[in-house]
Specification:
The chain is built from six helices and two strands. The chain has about 130 residues and is mainly α. Strands 1-2 form a two-stranded antiparallel sheet.
């Protein structure tokens, strides 16, 4: 996949924002599992989730727009991970998935977004790609 180097999200500041949001999102996901949370805390966690998903969606759409070819990004490792990080939120808006709590676990796919920012993991995936060829 060829992508332009001028993507806003690849700059140091936005990169740290995304990393922080990933970790924050996992923390709030963990807090949501605590029984008997007060209504204000539940509301705060839902609002936090909404803000995080909006930012992740903007990141995904920006990367999709900048990618050449676009379908290459959609089906790339990072494209799939980025989509999996936001998809559960949108699915839960469209369908009543209360009975399928497994979908909430898909939110943990956000941890995989961290691979984009790890040099060691990047080198490992490059080595796997080279071996695959």
């Amino acid at each position: 996949m060829n992508k332009r180097k001028d993507c806003f999200w690849d700059k140091p500041g936005p990169t740290w924002v995304i990393i922080t949001l990933i970790l924050y999102s996992v923390l709030t996901f963990s807090l949501e599992t605590i029984p008997n949370l007060s209504p204000p805390v539940k509301t705060f966690l839902r609002c936090s989730e909404f803000v995080v998903v909006i930012i992740f969606t903007l990141e995904y759409l920006t990367r999709l727009y900048k990618a050449k070819p676009r379908l290459g990004f959609v089906f790339s490792f990072y494209g799939i991970i980025d989509l999996l990080a936001i998809l559960p939120f949108y699915l839960m808006l469209a369908v009543d998935l209360r009975a399928l709590r497994l979908f909430r676990l898909l939110r943990l796919a956000r941890l995989l977004k961290l691979t984009r920012y790890s040099n060691a993991i990047r080198r490992f995936s490059k080595a796997l790609y080279t071996v695959k060829e």
